[in-house]
Amino acid sequence: MIDFKFLLLLVTALAVSIVVEAMVLPRIIYIAKKKRLFDLPDYRKSHATPIPRLGGITFALVAVFVFSASITLYDLVTGINLFDNLPLVSRRILGLMGGAILLFGLGVKDDLIGCSYKHKLVVQFIAGALLVSGDIYVNNLYGLFGIHELPIWIGAPFSILLVMFVTNAVNLIDGADGLASGLAGIAFFAFSILFYIKGLLIYSLLSIILIGILIPFFYYNVFQTSRKLFMGDTGSLTLGFILAFFAIRFAMYVPEDMVKFDSPVIISLMCVFVPVSDALRVMISRGLDNKALFKPDRRHIHHILLDQGFTHKKVMLTLVTSNAILIGATSFLLHYINVNALFLGIILVWLTAISLLNKRLKLKKASKLKVVRNDSLEEEAEEKLSASFLAEEYVTLGKEVHISNYKKVHIK
Prior knowledge:
Elements: H1 4-34, E1 38-39, E2 51-52, H2 57-78, H3 87-112, H4 117-133, H5 152-173, H6 179-198, H7 201-223, H8 232-251, H9 264-271, H10 273-288, H11 301-307, H12 312-333, H13 339-411
Antiparallel strand pairs: 1-2
């Protein structure tokens, strides 16, 4: 049965979050420009001018404001408290808020003065532990890799590592305009529907609010030039942490959930597949090349596509659309294909696509190198020919001068 009162709440919360974020972002741009808080260009980045990078500072603040106001007003108008008879939801939300506050502070520090990756990992570990302490951990793989129920002493540490990895993966994918916000927006949209079907209305509401927050930011990040804005680490770490929370909560086996999915683990994984698979692939690639796992380079999927000649918008559209198709196709095919066969097929298709892109990029670089070498050889040949011509001219001139002087001597 459709709850029209709650649907009205979702629409209202979406509209309010869009309006509030749209009001706040121009002020953030003004402050960032006045205080010269810019993301500076370097060899890994594709922007040529300094861009304000504090857009993500609004995400958590606006989300908490709209989320709290929505629940309070919904209770006043309808008399329904979304937290009633759900003590674990309150505990889980508190774990989420505690971890998000930690990562918010970490992101602000990194955006303003920088932060070492060791410091980041320590704070992310603490944030993950706070999340797990709120009874959020992977407790069942539903047959993926032949594994079903997980004891807490395995599920809890695994979940902390998963939170850290997803958080960093979203942070690392933020390398093209609209990419991180687009991927996060698609994932939040999927989770808003999935949680609604599952009867977890509080998480569906939070997902919708986050979509509303990302819409104005997406506009400034993708379509603006003079007022362009980056989310910075504050935004990407916050989004990654919340996505990790949603992925784990949806994947959890909870007997009280109204609707059970066949394999929610793989659906959760598909919601964050592009950033997670890309981060894992890059780390393995660096390890095989004996490189530092956290040393920045241009191996990420968005770098590969940009080096292929894709524009930022094409990179964003390609990867966001791919992730959306993966979510939809996986949710449909799970009813007909074994979860392990489906997961293996997705991995093979993705790796094949990356391999073909890398091969094409190498051929493109080799072709450019060949052209450069040919141009160099032509220039060298021209220089030699020119030198030879000048030498002949000099010899000829010398002979003419010698003959002229000889005649002058004999005339005298």
